Every structure is written in structure tokens, then in C-alpha cells.
Amino acid sequence: MSAQINRQFQLAQRPVGAATRDTFAYVETPVGEPGPGQILVKNQYLSLDPAMRGWMNDAKSYIAPVAIGDVMRALGVGKVIASQHPDFKVGDEVNGALGVQDYFLGEPKGFYKVDSQRAPLPLYLSALGMTGMTAYFGFLDVGLPQAGDTVVVSGAAGAVGSVVGQIAKIKGCRVVGIAGGADKCRYLVDELGFDGAIDYKAEDVNAGLKRECPKGVNVFFDNVGGDILDAVLARLAPKARVVICGAISQYNNKEAVRGPANYLSLLVNRARMEGMVVMDYAHRFQEGFKDMATWIAEGKLKSKEDIVEGLETFPETLAKLFSGENFGKLVLKV
Asked: Where is the signal peptide (predicted)?
């Protein structure tokens, strides 16, 4: 095994603004052997997520930042090729924090087994992975939807947003998605069954919300923040729930993150705005996984993956998330 080379992208500096190739150091190291309690995994697919930009910042958050010189953190799926851990054997397929590299070597903290015979491996990084769990618990537990509610989702053609909208339809809600571009908006309505779509690149979002949500918004699932959050806050219905899942419009800011200007709408409408972090629900993942797998099997929920090949493309592929180029869950095939 020692003759094999492990390509890695390590965090070289903390970016100001967007991360670029210079943010990372590309290194090649020999592949080691697992010690007691460790496993060696050949990484196959890596999940690229907006949260990765936040992990590069040396700031207080829900998880410690990636240290300078450490392999860039990333969730992924792969196959165990050597093991000294009693719970994992050679040939097991696993999901865990594998890092942006060819091989993971270490203790499998938080790792769990997956099965490519039951579902394609990339699906375990999208609807059957953290993406799906974020949508499931964020919408159902924080958004508290009721049948007949008008639900608005920003970043609706993205990984989490597209799943949230479909769950909302399953729960009997009226769903409006905000996305960038005619193709994405058509996909939401024609393929995923959204009731309406607002193209923020081609129309005024305030006017679109007035058209699509004449009675106001009962649940807003926000992945974007910024001007879109302000626009939706102005259309809230009484007792509305706003789920703050992310704020991708703000992650690459060189200045301080801009908060909502319309927050007094929460007061006037007796509404609630609450953040959610998916790992708070780790003890309930099996519950979410079971429902999501059932909905997929029944044809009620679709998952779209945007798969890019080549570990070497990592910096440029990650950037697609912030330009809106990705269509569905962005996955890097190692």
C-alpha cells in the first residue's frame, strides 16, 4: 500500500472573499497503513457544499474551522480497503468526513455504512445523505408545515432547496421556488411539481412574490440570505416560520455579513425565524432516511446530482456553487 500516492488539497490560507486555487495547497503523500482502531478508505465521491466556505474561516461556528495545513474537510463515500477497526471490514462502503483527497486514513468517527446495491453512491451524498437530512429536519421540524401552507424556497434548484420543495408538496403545501435562470425555473415546475417559480435573474423578486404568494408566505426556507431574504420577509403571513439554513449570497463577502433589513416584519406578523444545523438531528437520521428512501421508491421525490470528474478540479468545481453554475447536488467524482 505504501507505494500508492494520496493526492490531497490542504487549506493553505484563509480566503478573503471567494476561495480560489491559491487558497489550497495540492500535495502528494504516500498512502499509509491503518493502526489500531483505524480504517483506510479509497474515496469515490465527495460532497461539495456551501458550508465548506464557512469552514475555512477562523471564526466561532457550529464546527471548528479547518486548520491551516489540514486536508480540506469534505463529506464523501468510499470503500474500505484496509481495516483495524472491529466495526468495519475490507469491502464495506462508508459515508463520512473523508476529506478532499484520494484516501482517508484514520478513526472512522461518525462514519456509517452505505450500500451501492440499494442506491447509487452519489445518492448517499444528496437525498439520502446530509443534504436530504438537512431538508427533511429543517423543513419539518423547524418550518412546521401544515397542509395548505404557502411555502417559498430560495436556492430552490440547489441540493437542499429542491428536496425541501418536494417534501412540501408531499405534505400538501403550495410551493414556490426562487432560482436563477429559465432552465432551473422550468425544472422546478415541470419536473419537481412546484406550483410556481421566480427567476431572480430575470424578474423583480418582490413582484414575483406578490404574483405567486398573494396571501403571503407561511413558511420560508432560506438558503440564500441577502436581498432575497428581505424580499420574502416583506411578504410574510401571520405566524409565519422562517428557516435559516444558509446564506450563500453572503459567504464570500469581503465586508461584514449583512443582516435582514426587514426584520420588524417578524414582530408585526408574530413570525419566527430560526437557524438549523443538521448535526443536531444526528440521533434521528434513521427516521429521516427511512422516509426519504420510501418517497424515492414511490416516485414522490427525485434527486438530481451534478457530478464533476477529477479530484484535481476541486477548487474550480467548488466555485460553481457560488456562481450558481451547479444544477442539483454538486458531487466530485474522485
From this structure: none
Domain count for the chain, please give it: 2
Its pTM stands at: 0.89
- Residues 214 and 114 occupy one common structural domain: no
* Domain span at 83: 5-126+304-333
Q: Please report whether residue 47 resides in a domain.
A: yes
Q: Is 149 within 8 Å of 174 (Cβ atoms)?
A: yes
d(CA 53, CA 64): 13
* Residue spans of the chain under pLDDT 50: 1-2
If asked whether residues 315 and 233 sit together in one domain, one would say no
Domain boundary among 264, 279, 294: 279
Can you tell me the distance from the alpha carbon of 329 to that of 175, in angstroms, rounded to the nearest whole number?
20
Ranges of beta strands (E only) in 170-234 are 174-179, 196-199, 217-222
Instruction: Look up residue 298 and give its amino acid.
Output: E
CATH assignment of the domain containing 134: 3.40.50.720
Sort residue 327 into left (φ over 0), alpha (ψ -120 to 50) or beta: beta
The owner of cell 493553505 is: 12
Tens of pLDDT, residues 86-132 = 999 999 999 999 999 999 999 999 999 999 999 999 999 999 999 99
